[in-house]
Sequence to fold (410 residues):
Amino acid sequence: MPLSFAFGTRALRSLRHRHYAIWASGAVVSNIGTWMQRTAQDWLVLTQLTAHDATAVGMTMAFQMAPQLLFLPWTGYAADRFDRRALLMLTQGLMGALSLGLGILTVSGTARLWEMYVFAFLFGSVAAFDGPARQTFVSELVGRDDLPNAVALNSVSFNAGRMLGPVAAGACIAAVGTGWAFVLNGFSFIAVLMSLLALNGRAVTPPARRGSRGLLEGFRYVWRQPDLRTIVLMLLLIGMFGLNFPLFISTMAVSVFHVGAGQYGLLSACMAVGTMMGAVLAAGREKVSMATLRTGALLFGVGCLLAAIAPGYGLFAAALGLVGLATLTFTTTTNSLMQLSAAPEMRGRVMAIRLAVALGGTPVGAPVVGWVANHFGPRWGLGLAAASGFAAALVSLRARGLKRIEKTAS
Fold:
């Protein structure tokens, strides 16, 4: 059997599960629509609702991300307590309705900035409940052995949407206007709802409900497990000081290499290519372990260090490709390891904590990274990101209880 064929077979093995294949086909359509909306939302706030006010864009993002932390005790509990397919049908339907509502408001020309804040908060609130349920639902479709592969394929789908969605949004905005990007995203949720309806309920494993002792039990559970505590700490370090890519790329492009918007966009594309490569490699990986996570953290540190010392634009772009690959390796491995090591009845709450740390750590660390970049230069900001990767790798070496998680995840 040719090596490339064998790799392709391993990389796509989760698609052998009929129910996962149905779910994935709907998700990829929705991912493209979601990235269309994210792009159109920023464009609407920046160019139509304000006079190029970047603070307003940041406020919109803050309103959309805040519910991940605000509703943390309840989002994971809901994923553990209720039927995940039913919960996903509710959340996906609500997000589709919100997108259509925002689209109608924008197309009619009556949208206001405060209304964008309200829609961003509502959308983020629904997404906060959707995230843990969606991530843990995968384990019900493929089982334990193929879970890491399914997580990686989800990342491929997500990053495909990340690459195609903004392009589609730009074409839509240019052709018919910003509001229609929201409308199209609203209709894209039909694909997910249809895939959920097509699943045979008897073939989907319901969440285990035993041991659901309270909303805050997830925090206590993670704290008592050395393996989960280690992964959360590693994710917090890199999330706070490393995953500030818009800040790094923009300041290096403008202040160090003095390039225009076109070359700035190319840097983001280079990183996206690296991310996609990381997703494909992750899909072909047969198992994950703490060593995989440690490698991802080390590669992240090396990539950020190379980007910090890159003498020219081309080498900086190449380093960003490595950073993208390492980031994807690290984040997908945290997802797989945390799901595999958590008890089934606690999996939703564990994944809710993971999402809150991953999404909430970045805005907390961004002011620190920005202060370093302003006072010492963008290269030192990237140096801080590199240090976070190396520190995360050291945490994995010093932590106890790692043999159990490696045995569990293999």
Remarks:
- The CA atoms of residues 9 and 155 lie 17 Å apart.
